[in-house]
Amino acid sequence: MTARDLTTPSRSDPMAARGSGALGGVWGRHAGVSRSSWWTPVRVLLIATLITLLLGYAQKAPCADGNWSGWKQYTHMCYSDVIPLWSDEGFAKGAVPYRDSSVEYPVLTGGFMWLSSGVVHLLHALSSQWDEGVLFGVVTAFLLAICALITTALTAATARRRPYDAAIFALSPLLVFHAFTNWDLLAIALASAGLWAW
Length: 198
Prior knowledge:
- The chain is elongated.
- Helix 5 packs across helix 7 (132-159), helix 6 packs across helix 7 and helix 7 (132-159) packs parallel to helix 10.
- Helices cover 57% and strands 0% of the residues.
- It is built from 10 helices and no strands.
- By secondary structure, the chain is mainly α.
- The protein folds into 2 domains: 1-37, no CATH class; 40-197, no CATH class.
- The chain has helices at 9-12, 14-19, 41-60, 72-75, 82-88, 107-126, 132-159, 167-170, 173-178, 184-197.
């Protein structure tokens, strides 16, 4: 696909056209996109997703240590299922989902959780100064961030002529507040892969 094949948002979307006034107006008919430019639409969207995810991680950071006295997880709006389930699902003791403990999540999510806990145990063996519960949150957030980046890339690839439509996911406030609340980004990435393949 060449730059000419892309549909620019400022020409095809009325809201983007109105918003483009702050940046100089609608994309002109003589404007072009350099074919040698590093800044492809997908790369811009991936960077936007990373920024959104960093905001999401910062939003959850006050609760990362699991010290939730005084209902901190609610008063600071930083609750995440990841933190309490480290111990509640037995991952702290090396439990295997569905074999050693009943996990309320679907099998792929349980496998994802088990993979995260395995990485945590490996990292903790390298340096025991790290708190395993906090490390579980970090590893899980990292793996979920990969899922979010995959979702952005696949959504842009599915849109083909309108890759910037993936910005509705990449810049969503919901991604800031819920990216690391649970393991939903795994399911979203798999659904995106299914749509792309279809």
